[in-house]
Design goal:
The complex is a heterodimer of chains A (393) and B (163). Chain A contains 14 helices and 17 strands. In chain A, 60% of the residues are buried. Chain B is α/β, with parallel strands linked by helices and 163 residues long. Chain B is built from 7 helices and 7 strands. In chain B, the strands form 2 sheets. Chain B has a 4-stranded parallel β-sheet. The longest helix of chain B has 10 residues. The chains are: A alpha/beta (393), B alpha/beta (163).
């Protein structure tokens, strides 16, 4: 059993965790200060059961003295990071598979189920198998309009959907050190898409600048031992990497954008815990440039990952540009990636999304198709109504 | 009792789509198991049937609704070449037994099946398929009837030193 430094619960999987906590005889949570609660999957409530879940969770937070960010702050993983709730060396669990995002802060963070979380709420600890590590060395310099999402998609394609099952991915190398926190979060976020238990970027000055700006903590050295044993070492160079696209219906089904260019799209979604940060919106807006409108017949949905990121984008004029160009800008939430709230696809429709999963039925009908790509590729595709190489815009 | 055979990379969105995640009752979830990707499953699967998959069964979302939906159908055993990590834990924790079977690809859909956990095999259409034993620590939890039952008898837990 290992002690848990922080535990995150949200509106979808939280209610079940609370029920399990009660069934285990739980009366008081182990430490309300270490529990992070918020709602992001179905907000504002899209159904009466969703509204009931929110009420249930609010009552639990009040009764236990847990700070509840409620539906105001945004997508869980973005909120945990930007509120400084994740720091190097910590053990963090969340009832969401993309909890591995906090590896960008140098934390060991992993997604768990609701029963495991019920146990954590009561005892503040959980049983873990210590994962072996795969060292992913990334060097080189990204080309124009190619970035972290293209890197992590190419890794998913190479390593495979189960290539890192039960292992930790350690992202190192010159290209990772050069990468900003937004990009590191995109990479760590998708470690789960290779089956990994965690995806960790060793903390450096970039990490500590981010963390110390958000909480009082003294930086310390944390790195793999020089003689550490890795299950595997893989090396990549991003210098010649083309924009990548995951094609239906698996995240590891990855091709260069040129292979699918010209595929008509009905909907483009720019957002999610993978790519809903200010940097992602700026990347999309840069491709949009001074164009008047997105292509006719394409629904463009833009959802900033958090209230903070939304305000940054709003104040810098990005939101105005998206709205002028015909996008629907929604309040921070999981949006179409949740596959049940809104922005759903009809049978036969095609979506290009900056989120993390293209499983059959993930964004609506099981007869719809979802492609995954970077914000730059999404913006380029929205401009032309078909999958488009952003370097050619 | 029959085998319901699925392929590789069966994700939890397929087992229970996102739009049903406000449901927590296993019997209600069961009505929507594999909805959209294999509609006859919810109609025709019976208690005691066995779900079999290829590699990486249960990948994707951490939703515990996935094993609960299968339990609601009356499925007690899932056999696969390999499991995604979170699903594997969720299955153990909720009392659904995940059995790793290296030869799972040879199991055919619709075959009659019986499970012999003590013997370490399942028998499908008269042929025996070896399954790996459930690892020690998890077996304690399964034997207790899941993590809830396991935790009821605990006042506190001893944690290891992670410094």
């Amino acid at each position: 059993m290992a002690p848990v430094d922080a535990a995150m619960i949200h509106d979808i999987t939280g209610p079940l965790a609370v029920r399990v906590f009660r069934e285990m005889g739980g009366e008081r949570v182990y430490d309300p200060e270490r529990i992070i609660m918020l709602f992001d999957h179905q907000i504002p409530a899209d159904s009466i059961p969703a509204a009931e879940n929110h009420v249930f969770m609010r009552q639990f937070a009040e009764e236990q003295g847990i700070h509840n960010y409620d539906l105001l702050e945004g997508v869980c993983h973005q909120v945990v990071m930007e509120k400084g709730r994740a720091a190097p060396g910590e053990i963090i669990v969340g009832t969401d598979s993309h909890t591995c995002t906090y590896g960008a802060a140098g934390a060991f963070a992993t997604g768990i189920g609701s029963t495991d979380m019920g146990f954590v709420l009561k005892f503040g600890a959980l049983y873990f198998r210590v994962p072996e590590s795969i060292r992913v060395g990334v060097d080189g310099t990204f080309g124009r309009r190619v970035g972290p999402k293209d890197l992590i998609l190419s890794l998913a394609g190479d390593i495979g959907a189960d290539g890192a099952t039960y292992k930790a991915l350690e992202f190192t190398g010159g290209a990772m050190r050069e990468m900003d926190m937004a990009g590191r979060m995109t990479c760590a976020n998708m470690a789960i898409e290779m089956g990994a238990k965690a995806g960790i970027v060793p903390p450096d000055a970039t990490t500590w600048d981010y963390v110390t700006a958000r909480r009082e903590i003294e930086p310390f050295d944390l790195a793999g031992d020089a003689d550490a044993v890795y299950a595997e070492r893989r090396n990549y160079n991003v210098t010649d990497l083309a924009p990548q696209v995951a094609v239906p219906h698996n995240v590891d089904n990855v091709v260069d954008v040129g292979d699918v260019a010209g595929t008509k799209v009905d909907q483009v979604f720019i957002g999610s815990c993978t790519n809903g940060r200010y940097e992602d919106l700026a990347e999309a807006a840069e491709v949009l440039g001074t164009a008047d409108r997105f292509a006719a017949g394409v629904r463009v949905i833009v959802i900033p990952a958090s209230r903070t990121e939304y305000l940054k984008a709003l104040r810098s004029g990005l939101i105005e540009r998206f709205v002028e160009a015909g996008a629907l800008v929604e309040a921070p939430c999981c949006g179409p990636c949740m596959g049940g709230a809104f922005g759903l696809l009809a049978p036969g429709e095609v979506s290009l999304s900056t989120s993390n999963r293209n499983f059959r039925g993930r964004q609506g009908s099981a007869q719809a198709s979802v492609y995954l790509a970077s914000p730059a590729t999404a913006a380029a595709s929205a401009l032309y109504g078909e999958i488009t190489d952003p370097r050619e815009v | 009792m029959r085998i319901w055979k699925f392929g590789d990379d069966i994700d939890t969105d397929a087992i229970i789509p996102g739009r049903f995640l406000t449901i927590y009752d296993p019997a209600e979830l069961a009505k929507h198991a594999f909805e959209g990707t294999r509609d006859e499953f919810a109609r025709e699967a019976r208690a005691g049937d066995v779900v079999a998959g290829g590699s990486n069964f249960g990948c994707g979302s951490s939703r515990e609704h996935a094993p609960l939906a299968l339990l609601g159908v009356g499925i007690r055993v899932v056999v696969a070449k390999s499991f995604a990590r979170i699903f594997y834990r969720n299955a153990v924790n909720t009392g659904l037994l995940p059995l790793v079977c290296p030869e799972a690809d040879a199991i055919r859909d619709g075959d009659a099946v019986s499970v012999d956990i003590a013997g370490g095999f399942i028998e499908a259409n008269g042929k025996k398929f070896a399954v790996e034993p459930v690892p020690g620590f998890m077996k304690e939890i399964v034997d207790a009837g899941g993590l809830v039952a396991y935790a009821k008898d605990l006042d506190e837990v001893k944690t290891c030193n992670t410094e």
